[in-house]
Design goal:
With 170 residues, the chain is of the alpha+beta class. The protein has four helices and nine strands. It folds into two domains: 61 residues, no CATH class; 98 residues. Helix 1 runs antiparallel to helix 3.
């Protein structure tokens, strides 16, 4: 069986129709974000401004399309994730969190000679998405903190702490 390019319009239409069928029957197809816009952004490096929520029926479509063009895609953290942080290693890149009282630190250790991401996108199991710009690495490490009590950063910190959050490096 031939492999289809996940970015081909016919493939996008097929995936969208399958993942949104249940919502369409309830009259809520697409929610606040039109499916065509969702697919266009997922298939490019363009993100959404601020914290948005993907309709639950379209999360699978968004996840597959975003993973197709991301530098790295990590669907879950190790089972040993704790409240003090967790770690993921994908294709030689380590992503870990360190939790302090009011700050969640994100530490990304890149593999030598690998691509340098410009942003990180967090996709929660409930469809919430947060996208954060990344600074240039220093000695192969990108590190920054998110205030847990800060209104803007708190949502992203909560997503980062959830081991089920899908992480994309873009």
């Amino acid at each position: 069986m031939a492999q289809n390019d996940p970015l081909e319009p016919e493939m996008i239409d097929m995936i969208a129709s399958r993942t949104l069928a249940a919502e369409a029957e309830d009259g809520g197809a697409g929610g606040a974000i039109p499916v065509a816009e969702l697919a266009r952004r997922a298939a490019s490096r363009e993100g959404f401004a601020g914290l948005v929520t993907i309709p639950i029926g379209a999360i699978g479509l968004y996840r597959r399309l975003r993973a197709a063009n991301a530098l790295l895609s990590s669907p879950t953290a190790y089972a040993a994730a704790t409240e003090d942080g967790h770690r993921r290693i994908v294709d030689g890149v380590e992503i870990r969190t360190v939790v302090e009282a009011h700050v969640v630190w994100l530490v990304i250790t890149l593999k030598p000679g690998g691509a340098i991401p410009a942003a990180i996108e967090l996709l929660g199991a409930d469809g919430r998405i947060a996208r954060l710009p990344l600074s240039a690495p220093i000695d192969g490490v990108i590190q920054f903190g998110l205030g847990r009590e800060d209104a803007a950063e708190g949502e992203a910190a909560a997503l980062l702490l959830d081991p089920a959050t899908h992480i994309f490096l873009l």
